[in-house]
Amino acid sequence: MDKESAKFILEKNIKDYDIISEKYSEVREKNWQEMEFLFNDYIKQNDNVLDLGCANGRFYEEFINSGANYWGIDSSEKLIEIAKNNHPEANFMVAEAFNLPFESDFFDNIYSIAVLHHIPGSDLRQQFLEESKRVLKDNGYIILTVWDLTEKIKKRKFDFLNWFWERYLEDNDYLLPWYGTKDTYFHRFDLSELINLFQSVGLKIIKKGEILIGKKPYKNFYIVAQKIN
Q1: What is the pLDDT of residues 72-81, one digit of tens each?
Q2: pTM greater than 0.85 (yes/no)
Q3: How far apart are CA 47 and CA 45, in angstroms?
């Protein structure tokens, strides 16, 4: 994907989340119980932890209860406003994942829950991980999840406008309805693509797999990777 197209899509997704921020926050208030092992198994007391794409701060209490020193960033100003209102004592800020406002080797762990599938273009996705790696300490962990969109894509209804624009996207890129929007960008990952992406930036895969969430349920892929000097 060319840089201008990726930039346009990225900016549109940020605007979409500003628009849906209140509706999103009404539904997504708490952590998913099925994901608790990702917090319990990797956070130690007084670890510096970055919640990368923190949205409304829904995971904040999970981090604090694990003994972490917490920072949360998101590109949506509206979601950060909600996060600050919910947890005024916490370190929330508006920032870009591609230019993090932190020193190198600052964090013990970086978490990115359900964010990377919104990043358009292979170049930006690689930059996302490279910048995360920069601010991560040696032997620190990056814990990341994305949605398995296979079933959602099968059930989507035909929309001519989306079909028209999707001709300009890359393979496995889709514009899908999301909390009232009609054309929010998603990239459909499989686990092998995620693994290859992490390995391309020199991160060591420690653990990987699927997480089934809810009664239906729906699938999330997860990766735990380590920065090895």
Answers
A1: 999 999 999 9
A2: yes
A3: 6
